[in-house]
Sequence to fold (332 residues):
Amino acid sequence: MNSVPSSHTLVDAYGRRIDYLRLSVTDRCDMRCSYCMPKGFQGYTEPEDWLSFAEINRVVRIFAGLGVGRFRLTGGEPLLRRNLVELVGQLARLPGVDELSLSTNGSRLLKHAAALKQAGLARINVSLDSLDKNCLQQVTGRDSLDAVMAGVMAGKAAGLTPIKLNMVLMRGINDHEVERMAAFCFEHGFILRLIEAMPMGETGRNAAYMRVADILPALAARFGLEPVALTLGGGPASYWQTADGRNQLGVITPVSQHFCATCNRVRLTVDGVLHLCLGQEDRLELRPLLRGGADDDCLRMEIVKAIHRKPEKHHFNEAPAKMVRFMSQTGG
Fold:
């Protein structure tokens, strides 16, 4: 192990530079995606334990000062957080915030897309696992297709681009729809991202897991896709594109071909827990520090020390039942 780095950089013990923070603003959602949140779940964080906008601003300012330039607002469904547009405007103006993006299920985008863009949001990722109304209702627990499609098109009209549509592959549920989804995305200039379900809690372990590799060859042949060295955002996707370069497809394979060696991100929950790895329990409790009088230097040093504890890799393959925390609790 290396010695703890200086307080002006975020590099972990394995030499990985951390430059991306995913920030949950709520653990509540208006959908119940089968791989994300258990049916009937009511164990939400109490609002008094949520980080306030002022506390979120302070955390982002400190991370930005440590060289983190990419920030993504997540949930639950982040657009359920009251006055989120106001928070976007505050964060977008902070020095060092190079890119501010949003992950959403799209159900409320029609109302908020234009205001989000005006406030300084750069782009959006939208969860959309099916273009079939009945299939999507099976996955999300509600009749959501029309609202999501209206939201996606509103995001496009507002200029929140490039828009990435995230499709979690589930064998026997939506795997037959992948070609249709790709054709839809290519027609509208969206980037489809195929994602393997992660064994986060019982919901994730019961998500009809399917490897991207099982479907990628047929998809590549159908659309003439070739692997390319593209970096589209700060996430872990590897990309394929058509020969003319007009259409891109991203694949995210956290289970079958993990990308831990290049991990550049950490996650902050709505109640101020900094998770250092999606598949481990290593964490830093920031809320007690924020509300206990810690100054910025103290917060900065605690964050630097925590990053140095970031695990080398997850253990989804070796111990899939280890992670009892499910995805909506972690922050997307």
Remarks:
- The chain has eleven helices and twelve strands.
- The two ends are 30 Å apart (CA to CA).
